[in-house]
Write a structure and sequence with these properties.
Elements: E1 7-10, H1 15-26, E2 32-33, H2 45-55, E3 59-62, H3 70-75, H4 77-97, E4 102-106, H5 135-155, E5 159-164, E6 166-168, H6 181-195, E7 199-203, E8 209-210, E9 212-214, H7 215-228, E10 235-237, E11 243-244, H8 245-256, E12 261-265, E13 274-275, H9 280-285, H10 293-306
Parallel strand pairs: 1-2, 1-3, 3-4, 4-5, 5-10, 6-9, 7-12, 8-13
Antiparallel strand pairs: 8-11
Length: about 325
Amino acid sequence: MFQDSKIYVAGHRGMVGSAIVRELRRQGYINILTRTHGELDLINQRAVDDFFAAERPEYVFLAAAKVGGIEANSSALADFMYDNMMLEMNVIHAAWRNGCKKLEFLGSSCIYPRMAPQPMPESCLLTSELEKTNEAYALAKISGLKYCEYLNRQYGTDYISVMPTNLYGPNDNYHPTHSHVLPALIRRFHEAKESGAPEVVCWGDGSPLREFLYVDDLANLCVFLMNNYSGNETVNAGTGKELTIKSLAELVAATVGYEGRIVWDTTKPNGTPRKLLDVSKATRLGWTYRTELEAGVRLAYEDFLSNPMRAER
């Protein structure tokens, strides 16, 4: 990409999209194109086609998605599949029809099988069954990844995909039921501290292992890949490090300053037992993460405190 290339970031108000915009600006890109949901509904095929025909962006970062944690995914399976498949297919197809030079599709590590080898290499995709609690979202993301691959094979496009691990950081979603585990814990422990609650109840038994990547590190990788990678296989985005949910809860509690008890509700699901990405491919390409988890959680909590209205989303 050149500094004045026309670059469209789909989903620029979300955590990932806003981080990509920050990173592009940090690196001196000056022609960044964005649209709010009110200005452009990506589920509306006609509207997306008209937008691409009028603007003709040269590069596209497809970071828009309907996202949520275990409860949201489990209770709205049809919505998660339909909304995500429609918006990603509309954007990718319109980009191809209007001569986009390169597109980068943002997926999720949940695309990999529930019992995938650990750490999970890119090659394990579609080798066994998915985790049921987020199957609908995973199927939608796999479809977007594969559509990029098939366009490359059939029409010679240069469309790539990146699969992030669990993300956190500025502009995260702290909704009490629709957020992912780390922002949910930040909100829960903060509110418990403010109210003086003697205990905080967390889902499961705390045993699942998870990996977390600070969102600004992901954005740096996204721009790096747009400039340095072409290929049909996706690229994993992570740290290569993991910890238990129990250890994560203790870290968040300490960061927030909550001193009460942590209680585990074992009647609630744990989700996938382990989700560690094999990040050797990104490393071979010349990229590695920068932000360690302890520092990142402090930054995320500062972001949460800086705008309390985010907790209402």
